[in-house]
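Standup notes, structure subgroup. Blocker cleared on the flavin-adenine dinucleotide input:
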Amino acid sequence: MNRAGGAPTRREILHAIGVMGGASVLYQAMATMGHAAETQFAGPPNLSGARPGASVLVLGAGLAGMLAAYELGKAGYKVRIIEYNNRPGGRNWSLYGGDTYAELGGATQKIGFAKGNYLNPGPWRIPYHHRSLLHYCKAFGVALEPFIQLNHQALVHNSKAFGGKPQRYRELAADWDGNVAELLSKAIDNKGLNAVMTTEDGEMLKEALRTWGMLDKDMRYVRGPASAARRGFDRPPGGGVDGAPIPSDPFDFRDVRQSGVWRAFAQHMGHERQTTMFQPVGGMGMIGQAFARQVEGKIRYGAKVTKIDQSGGAVTVTWTDVASGAVETAKADYCVCTIPLGILSQIDVDVSPGMRAAIAAVPYSNSVKVGLEMKSRFWEDEDAIYGGISFTDQPIGMISYPSGGMHSAGPGVILGAYTFGPASYKLAALPPEQRIAAALDQGAVLHPGRYKEQFSNGAAVAWSRSPFTLGCCAQWNEDTRKEHYQTLVAVDDRIVLAGEHASYIGCWMEGALLSSLDAITRLHKRALEA
Ligand SMILES: Cc1cc2nc3c(=O)[nH]c(=O)nc-3n(C[C@H](O)[C@H](O)[C@H](O)COP(=O)(O)OP(=O)(O)OC[C@H]3O[C@@H](n4cnc5c(N)ncnc54)[C@H](O)[C@@H]3O)c2cc1C
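Run returned:
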């Protein structure tokens, strides 16, 4: 509603368009007005007019399932969620001191972190353009803080460069830019770029290269005030008698190339890791808990779904009570199923042959994360590393320093391994305490001396051994997308699938939410037409 007498605000105009035209028209309008240009989120769905008494069973209390239940409940459906775990959130989860985690194979970890410390075994960062997730975090009262992705003071370690000695990202990044700028400038002087640009263009580019690449008056990247201003000093500027700074020596460009620092550039530059990123205060699991508060009393925990039937004009779901082994069933008019595909493919599901083939067609990746609690925050006190990521070519892949609780006394939890692919399966094959030991050995290469001495306890999660996902995330490729995606996301009589696997933003919470909103919007339409 417009404020009395005033011109309508943008928000009011968008609201009116949304009411009249629905989500896709609203999205077009928002994009035209400069909002939402990077997301398909057009605001919460406007589902209304559910048939009185119409019911929906939602399978899985991850973010996709809980959002479906929340929005369908608001629209008037009778909703119940059936969840395998004894907690909400699914992959959105934090491990705290006192928690217990049992993985496939039987290894059970009792987490020993100090109060307030945590490991996010799954999601840990939120891009600024994941608008639906940010919307619901705000709506449900989840406090966010910045997540530090890029830290120039963090380290890059390559066992084949610099004799295996880790170097500062800042120095390598500066030397990379400087050397590339100098090379390009030489190519212009030697007429090497004549085929692609005019002399005038070349001169303009050289001017830009001088600033971007820290070049001196002779277009050389050398030790001096320009390069030191970015890569740092041998003696930093100070006060008094010895206040004059002493610039540092750039590295040999061969060593810089060998370091593989460009892989770290690529990590930071991707759209999903650009500034600003967020994390919930107190652990990623805060989001799952906040969603659960919105559907309080509707989640049946500790219930492992084993069969989904949709004969006889209703959906009948069968589950086993995990604690007692008792078998139970429930009936509803419709079903939103968010169970990850690796598990769903092993369940007796009454859907079309095409959808069954789609469910079976998508493999899952693996990932291993290790959290290491250290007695003090030595990376801050001694190395001036506040948040961010150090990269290594060792199997642990990276070390990430906590973005929360900075400058506190400690103890603090470092992410001591975050790894995918073959290295992750090797780590997953070890018992948790050996994964932690490997993370300590490899991390000590980057922080010699302090790492093992300061270690107090750890936790390790291998997603290939997660009983509630059997993997990290769905791995679509061009062929499977072409053959199966549209069948997977279509409403199959009374059942619709949702979750990160039913999106083009795989392995992001945003994908799970957008998939959920799309699935329930179409299911609601189907229900109204019935
Ligand atoms: C290592 C890792 C890192 C990630 N990093 C990020 C990140 O930084 N940022 C980000 O946005 N996303 C990240 N993600 C992706 C994100 O976690 C997922 O996209 C999202 O949480 C998936 O939500 P969902 O609801 O689709 O599935 P889930 O969260 O998996 O929910 C499915 C639910 O179904 C339940 N279930 C399974 N089987 C049964 C059964 N038989 N009966 C009943 N219930 C069952 C499960 O217990 C679970 O609760 C990461 C994921 C991983 C694993």
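Discussed briefly. Residues 1-6, 13-27, 29-36 have pLDDT under 50 and may be disordered.
Next: hand off to the docking folks.
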